[in-house]
Amino acid sequence: MLPVAGRPIIGHILADVAGLEPEEVRLVVGYRGDTVEAYARRAFPDLPIRLVWQESQLGLGHAVLQALDPGDHDAVLVILGDTVFDVDYREVVAHEENVLGVRPVPDPERFGIVELDGSGGRISRLVEKPAQPKGNLALVGLYYVHDGELLRQAIATLVDDDARTRDEYQLTDALQRMIDGGERFVPYEIGGWYDCGKSETLLATNRALLELHAPEEPAGGVERSVLIPPVHVGPGCAIENAVVGPYVSLAEGATIRDSVVRDSILAEGAHVEGAFLEGSIIGPAVRVRGRARTVNLGENSEVTW
How does residue 127 score in pLDDT terms, banded at 50, 70 and 90? Predict the structure, then answer.
């Protein structure tokens, strides 16, 4: 739900998924799931959304298992909720084989890596953070499986066997069992991979998406101020006697007064006054006053210098 380039991360994902006209969108949630549901239903009223609760946080494989119905052999597209992709999803789901999204990385030992067979076209092995990687194609969090029941069974056997990796039921372990059982998986190289899992990557994603999708001119609320593009200004924002930008995203109702703000994200109702902010993430209803330079604050905080 953190805002990036004018909308929550999940909003970017759902906007892309909506173009596929899916039979159903299942959101696997835990903490603050009601907030996710309220936003998704309000922002995408035409999407057939089902909320699925993961009561115990037992890993990505376990999360996906909660969303799979027994006996349902329909195709399944799995997208991690903290990642935005620049990808043609229609091209992904048009594949005749199962697909794993990948991206070449300079440091493969930090990621889950796919190893290819001799022909180079089929995935033979998935290795999590290998000490001596046999390639540099990292898994990026996009999975397309033609038979959801086969995926469900593979994950269920992990749970039945209590086969955990780092104390969690891993989706990669279930996929490896499918590969070992003869299922064919092929890599699909992703053009843009915007990870939002950490503050620095969230800000990098904000910069990239603001560059990629030029924001509209603010409808109002800007007085005696300079905006240095790209800047996204949401509805109901107020900017007074300030310099804002580049690479600033303001969600609905955010306020900046007597300040300089750049390379930062302000969530709904955030208020910054008399401050210089750079590389900062300001949560909902946060109030910042003073000479802070870089701060990351959760909702309803208040900081004064």
Answer: confident
